[in-house]
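Notes from the 1:1 (GR / supervisor)

We went over the backlog. Supervisor wanted to see one worked example end to end before approving the batch request, so GR pasted a single chain during the call. The sequence is below; no edits were made to it. Supervisor asked that the structure be written out right there so they could see what the output format looks like.
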Amino acid sequence: QVQLVESGGGLVQAGGSLRLSCAASGLTLIAYRMAWFRQAPGKEREFVAGISWSGTSTDYSDSVKGRFTISRDNAKNTVYLQMTSLKPEDTAVYYCAKGRPGVLTGPFFASGMDYWGKGTLVTVSS
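Structure output shown during the call:
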């Protein structure tokens, strides 16, 4: 059974940093691209960052570009999201997602992901 488990969320002051992790079990992530999405209260889920299967290509939403960094360690079957210069508007539940087989290029749409974690809450206080 495929499972994605996020960790690392919590409460942080504006300007602070957090590192989220997404550990996978039940499959090897190396063949798939991965992404982070987030959903703030009362808002739709939105794309945050994505990474190619090899880790050589990344993509970010404009709202986090320059502040967040996505990375992966295929040997550990884990994907990370380093978040710096956090703002109150970054407050959300952050979800890790796995790309569908064969979907290796193009924008990271939620419809292109087939497995999701349950999310980890990030709260940024002002």
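Supervisor's comment: The chain has a mean pLDDT of 96.
Batch request approved.
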